[in-house]
């Protein structure tokens, strides 16, 4: 059973509709839920499981800490909110090395400080031998903005991305191919361009730094829909298409030019690289739609136009690239 | 290394003081953290790990769902807040039976509805073989009240408890002794009094129903300090004593009369039962201090007086029962 199958069984059981008007501004099913607290607070949670979401021979505790914060903060950003707090819950084999736990904590603290978002609490549990699970909950403040949902894309809108596409997926693919970035941090001057490309992609896979400043900027600019790209462009873009009842018609040339050319093509080649641009998971970039002419121009939080929203045809809501449905799909954390 | 040792290493690393005034009303270290969202929102998280926090031969998924919600809601209540929302994060072996997951979900939904508190989101991850971890985050609204901290107890205050003491610990002890409640739900009419006592204690251990309505009532009544009893009366009362710099002088006779006499003594006898009253974990009752004469009288959310707050003596802040420091301590989830 896939994650979405299971969630579609579970979510209705919580009977959120029974609570409508009792403080739920946005119920389950979007990037984050919004609960009023007089003014609203955005809340979201995401976990990482050792051996599933990271491998100790590739990632340090510091990497894991940065990544689990990034995943959560990008969900807050995808609503148009600014992160305001984090809760951290760790379930770990009591034999887990203290050094590793401290390294994790430092990574979480680093990510939290980068997002200007304090860790305000947490929980620690013992887990069976070998198990380490890190769950983070993030809160965000819309600062008076309306939350940007997945369902607001309208024909005529422009589709744009903040951040990169496929870097995390490409970094993972490079690890799977046996290339391991052994540079101490970022690549040095005397590496070849390809070595630098491998290094930067693997670095981004281990410890992504999503463009969360772009979320509130998009909301201020009038974004009609927005999503955090966690399961790949095709899959997450498809979620906007479905929720909005439209077709996202992406421009193949723009995608190749802006996202394939560069480190990904250099490190993986055009074919494998293109697959990562379309379907690479855990990127945590933001995908949004804007009314024509209102894509924000902001150097700190730039947006790249990659397509248009058009009326859904007889095939129903869908995402197309160069007029065709791409054969790649995305990433299913539960099945994977 | 114990939980408190590890936490005392980790919490300072988050550098919460660096964020003071940036929206943190109550930093880590109390039952729950408070983050402003214009008006404030109370947030807390607590997890349950299969094989550590429950056993499948004793507890159903429904029981686990009720318990994990109860643990979180009681932390919200212990601040004086009303719960407003829950996030649920499940990391599970993909081979976990769907029936079990659905039963868990129903238990969570039951607990949430009982607390009038919607589940507003969550996260699902795959975990190694045999592993199931359920993490819940709860949010609460103080509705204009000041949060009730652990640090406000003052000499002359009265110490009181809402809910029972030792029921969950006694239920666990009875399971450990090999007595397993096989009644379908609550005890029936033709059971002996002891069988009924065993059944009700084991039922409470599996699926506690803490008196969360008493938290806001206590805050409205002027409670000077409050804590959720998750690690036993002695340990959690000791936390109020330490945070407030006082002695909690508990009345042995009042404790025996109100909490030992009844199901616990009937099921476990006086000696073992008394240990549970003092040190039994996972009760999730509320312990609070009130200025003399202001203990709330509220039939739906009653408080039982069990002692007084006195000046700390030369031994420093501590908890005493009948004038002596009890030899039992409490429950350490990480060491245990």
From TrEMBL, chains A, B:
Q: Which residues bind substrate?
A: 53, 282, 331
List ligand-binding residues for Mg(2+) 4. 31, 44, 75
Can you tell me which residues bind Mg(2+) 1?
Answer: 45-46, 123
Per the UniProt record, which EC number(s) apply here?
2.7.4.16
UniProt-listed InterPro entries:
PurM-like_C_sf, PurM-like_N, PurM-like_N_sf, ThiL-like
Concerning its family, UniProt says: Belongs to the thiamine-monophosphate kinase family.
Query: What is the protein's given name?
Result: Thiamine-monophosphate kinase
Q: In which organism is this protein found?
A: Knoellia subterranea KCTC 19937
Q: Which gene encodes it?
A: thiL
């Amino acid at each position: 059973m896939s994650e979405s199958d299971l969630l579609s069984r579970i979510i209705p059981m919580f009977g959120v509709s029974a609570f409508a008007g009792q403080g739920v501004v946005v119920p389950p099913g979007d990037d984050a839920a919004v609960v009023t607290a007089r003014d609203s607070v955005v809340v979201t949670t995401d976990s990482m499981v050792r051996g599933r979401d990271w491998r100790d021979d590739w990632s340090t505790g510091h990497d894991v800490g940065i990544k689990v914060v990034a995943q959560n903060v990008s969900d807050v950003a995808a609503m148009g909110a600014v992160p305001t707090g984090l809760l951290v819950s760790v379930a770990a084999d009591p034999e887990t090395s203290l050094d590793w736990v401290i390294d994790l904590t430092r990574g979480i603290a680093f990510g939290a400080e980068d997002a200007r978002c304090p860790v305000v609490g947490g929980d620690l549990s013992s887990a069976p031998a070998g198990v380490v699970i890190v769950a983070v909950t993030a809160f965000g403040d819309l600062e008076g903005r309306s939350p940007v949902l997945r369902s607001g894309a309208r024909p005529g809108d422009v589709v744009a991305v903040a951040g990169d596409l496929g870097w995390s997926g490409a970094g993972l693919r490079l690890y799977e191919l046996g290339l391991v970035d052994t540079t101490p941090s970022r690549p040095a001057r005397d590496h070849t361009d390809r070595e630098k490309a491998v290094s930067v992609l693997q670095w981004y896979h281990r410890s992504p730094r999503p463009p969360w400043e772009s979320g509130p900027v998009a909301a201020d600019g009038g974004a009609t829909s927005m999503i955090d790209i966690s399961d790949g462009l095709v899959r997450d873009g498809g979620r906007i298409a479905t929720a909005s009842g439209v077709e996202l018609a992406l421009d193949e040339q723009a995608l190749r030019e802006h996202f394939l050319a560069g480190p990904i093509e250099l490190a993986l080649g055009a074919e494998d690289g293109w697959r990562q641009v379309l379907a690479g998971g855990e990127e945590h970039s933001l995908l949004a739609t804007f009314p024509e002419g209102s894509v924000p121009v902001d150097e700190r939080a730039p947006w790249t136009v990659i397509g248009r929203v058009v009326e859904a045809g007889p095939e129903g809501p869908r995402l197309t690239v160069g007029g065709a449905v791409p054969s790649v799909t995305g990433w299913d954390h539960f099945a994977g």
